[in-house]
Amino acid sequence: MAGRYVVFNNGVSCPIIGFGTWMKTSVAESVKIAIDVGYRMFDCACNYGNEKEVGEALREKIREGVVKREDLFITTKVGLAFNRPDLIEVSIRNSLKNLGLEYLDLYLIHWPQTYKEGHDPDTLGDPSASIPGTVDYVDNWKAIETLVDKGLTRSIGVSNFNKRQLTRVLEAARIKPAALQIEVHPYLNQVKLIDFCQSQDIRVIAFSPLGSPDRPWAKPSDPVLFQDKRLQPIADKHQKSLVQVLLRYAIDRGLVVIPKSSIREQIEENYNVFDFQLTAEDLTYIRSLECNFRFCTIGE
């Protein structure tokens, strides 16, 4: 299994490729397929609204003897409606109940933004109707640290934070963030932020590595990353698909990557990336596709 895991700054091992669970279709069957294929890291969130389905799939595969709990690496995130110090433990306990777990492997502050109670944009379904809160995310970090002390999660981190925000957390942290989850792909390479994280021994987890093609807010004029023919020569050279090249691009940069799909063939294809490696020239070329384009915003 060499090369299939990274080690966090607290000594916890994390699979280098995980399975994203933000999807419109039934997630339970997709998670079961992913476990059968070989995925052991599953990325969840309170605001995805499907933790119970994920938990059912995990428990079924554990009952079948396909995996043990200790084989799995489960991540989830603080709900936006719980993004304040006095509610963060409520949020993780709700997630643990939904997932049917006693502990998490990684718990993330989903967004630095906070919202007044009852004005969670995901709950309202209309981001324009949300009302910003006044909670400082540094106070939320101090609250999330206590969850490690209580054994509710092995590791903690943040998601969608920029360098300035992450620096403020680091300056106040008693427990250093183990990971930062951000959007990363050839159109948004995030070089400076990734370099900063690596200098601080913080692992970067890349979401939307394929350009989040099923995002509901996509516009007809948006670029389609996983169909970018400029990648075809590299795919042909390695006898791999464009999708596999994109995933390997993240892995060869030292990132954890979390693709998602509800189609068995695609789930298998996404995982079949351990029998090749991109060259330095490949990496430089792919990086040149940078156009500072984000597929996901607060509506993720």
From TrEMBL:
Domain NADP-dependent oxidoreductase residues, every copy: 17-289
Alphabetic keyword roster: NADP, Oxidoreductase
A molecular function (GO) term: oxidoreductase activity
Residues at the site labelled Lowers pKa of active site Tyr: 77
Residue numbers binding substrate: 110
A Pfam short name: Aldo_ket_red
Family: Belongs to the aldo/keto reductase family.
Active site: 48 (proton donor)
Name of this protein: (African queen) hypothetical protein
